[in-house]
Amino acid sequence: MPASVRGLIAAAVAAGVPAGLIYAAATLTLASPLLFQAEAFEMGGAVDHGAARALWTVIGSVALATAMALILTPVLHASGAPTLRQGGAVAALGFVGLILIPGVLMAPVPPGVAHHASVAVRQGNWLAAGIGFVLFCVLASMVCRPLWRRRDVRLVTLALAALAMAALGVLYWNGGLDIGGTPDGPVPEALVARFRHVVSVCNVLLFAALALLMPLALRRLAR
Amino acid sequence: MTPSAVSRTLSVAARRALPLMIPALLGLALLGVVGFAPYPAVHDALHDIRHAAGFPCH
Questions:
Q1: Helices H / strands E in chain B, number of each
Q2: Among A5, A38, A161, B10, whose Cα sits 20 to 30 Å from the Cα of B21?
């Protein structure tokens, strides 16, 4: 099923905007209060957080979700059938590559938590993790494709993938590997851990929304 | 396979890949702005979402 560039972009935007609004609602209700608490520790007092800040969070959420949808929609289209199952698999792949692996290497932290490594170094690590994951996926699909028709190979591969994902999830939930150096600062450890748990819920929500919306949008718009 | 058949195969592959590459590159560019753009105004505007999505912020 060939698709036009315009159709794919329209499908990605149609999936990304509502997913972004869901992500914004989750971030504003769950993560932002913790962010403000952390900033109060950082500044040593209450911080101003007006409506403009919330509006930028909504704009940023929609932009981020649209970016994710633009990256993942062509992958879903290339996979052949834009079913909900395929959508779930592609969204899970996106979650692992864009959130879980970078988060295991450098756990998400609220403001007021300092790292020993500079921002540029940590951004480089994030990009390297993403590129490494994409290369791994390409290699794995090349190796698995000839054998994918065999049911036993399929089951073993899926079981290994589920085990790897569970291991990464446990690592992420417990603070990850912190390759940028152990973070420290005036923010209490309990608040940092709660922030990490809450943003992981928000990010799972974002990719769950994308898993549902991308196949629907692709079927309607990418022709 | 003759050279002309190879070039025909490559051209078909490129024609199929291009519609998939353009949205993905657009998405990567947008992801770069949201997550990595170093300009202070962009950083301040997207600060909360960078922390929430786990991008290295400051």
A1: 3, 0
A2: A161
A147-176 pLDDT, tens per residue? 777 888 778 888 888 888 888 888 888 877
CB atoms within 10 A of CB B29: 12
Backbone region of residue A84 per phi and psi (left: phi > 0; alpha: psi in -120 to 50; beta: other values): alpha
Cα B58 to Cα A112: distance, rounded to the nearest angstrom: 9
Pick from B30, B39, B49 the residue to mutate for testing the A interface (most A CBs within 10 Å): B49
Q: Among partner residues A53, A64, A115, which is closest to B53 by beta-carbon distance?
A: A64
C-alpha distances out from residue A161 to A80, A165, A168, A185, Å: 21, 6, 10, 36
pLDDT at A28 over 90: yes
Residue type, A10: A
pLDDT higher than threshold 80 for residue A179:
no
Q: pTM for the whole thing?
A: 0.88
Number of A:B CB contacts under 8 A?
122
Q: Which long-range contacts (CB under 8 A, 24 or more apart) does A156-165 make?
A: A165/A92, A165/A96, A165/A100
Residue A95 to residues A202, B36, B54: CA-CA distances in angstroms?
12, 18, 12
As a whole number of Å, the end-to-end CA separation of chain A is 8
A153, HSE (Cβ side, Cα atoms, 13 Å): 10
Residues with Cβ within 8 Å of residue A115, at least 6 apart in sequence:
A106, A109, A122, A180, A181, A183, B56
Q: How far is Cα B57 from Cα A59, in angstroms, rounded to an integer?
A: 18
A175, A193 Cβ separation under 8 angstroms: yes
Does the distance separating the beta carbons of A123 and B23 come in below 8 Å? no
In angstroms, the CA A215 to CA A92 distance is: 14
For the record, the structure tokens of A95 come out as 């979650």
